[in-house]
């Protein structure tokens, strides 16, 4: 019998899904509620009416069941804090029983002994744990709670249990005095670390403004450089890349319509209130459907069509960076509903590409 690696399977799956419009990957924002209160959080809502609008475990499972019937094989469970959803285990065990590959995103507080033992019976494919500080003071400042010791202990517990862990860092103005130390602290665990240098617009109802926690482009670039030093990117050998993805001789020109990424092509997201988007945080005024109302198939087809028909900003067509830069509506936030670019996002990417080019020359 011919066997292939998990990676080869993943590449084939995503290529086939892209070609045939199959929603093979779903991101589920189970709840906007959280046991932390990070000042830069785009999702955390506190209004008591939220509880009434949240989907129950049964509603989540009915969407997931439809998704599985349409080809979903992998999920990301996120929030808020996904583990605080009252029916988290019902949802988790349903997915396991269906053979769906699960990735879990958590702030680490609830990865205690009891929950880790329960997870380890049917371990997730991976857990992304967000780190918000490197000591009590930084945790208090960024998240409003001193949970440094709890999170540190739980990260170690997950590593010792043998879970596939990634540590996620999202620098913001609040983390600024400690950003380098947080990255160094993350490195000390010896597991993969992802540093996300672009913040996105907060939900309007969260009462937060991106401008309050955003970082200047200079600082974003500095963090990017530091993270590249601490966590040098591992590039796949060229032969391996060509074997898996085929030979790429030239990136296609920007098409009049359509995005290049997987959003709405092989992936979809369902937010805490049941809204389906091409990916989490994708601007709702471009496209937003409700699978519990419209049915999964109709919602997916409309999302898929909207992404294929999305008109990339005219500016991108003549931009000298357009063979490297891929327009992302989520990053360009409110500008993207008018098919425009956010100048600050463009500046960040242009300067980052210049820096990368210079690195290659040196
Ligand atoms: S842990 Fe995550 S979801 Fe919770 S408040 Fe902080 S950023 Fe928001
Ligand atoms: S830098 Fe801006 S204008 Fe240029 S391709 Fe990227 S998003 Fe488009
Ligand atoms: S965040 Fe941007 S690049 Fe990523 S999937 Fe969404 S639209 Fe595509």
Description:
The model has no long low-confidence stretch (mean pLDDT 92). The chain has 16 helices and 8 strands. An 8-stranded mixed β-sheet has the order 6-5-4-3-2-1-7-8, with helices on one face. It has 362 residues and is an alpha/beta fold. The protein has helices at 6-20, 50-53, 57-69, 88-97, 113-121, 136-143, 148-161, 179-187, 210-213, 217-230, 238-245, 291-294, 296-309, 314-317, 329-332, 343-361, and strands spanning 25-31, 74-79, 101-106, 126-131, 165-169, 193-195, 267-270, 276-277.
Characteristic terms for this protein:
2 domains, 16 helices, 8-stranded mixed β-sheet, binds iron/sulfur cluster, 362 residues
**Strands side by side in the biggest sheet:** 6-5-4-3-2-1-7-8
Determine the oligomeric state from the structure.
Answer: single chain
| Number of helical elements | 16
Strand content: 5-15%
CATH superfamily of the largest domain: Aldolase class I
User: What is the fold-level CATH name, i.e. the topology of the largest domain?
Assistant: TIM Barrel
Q: SSE order in H/E notation?
A: HEHHEHEHEHHEHEHHHEEHHHHH
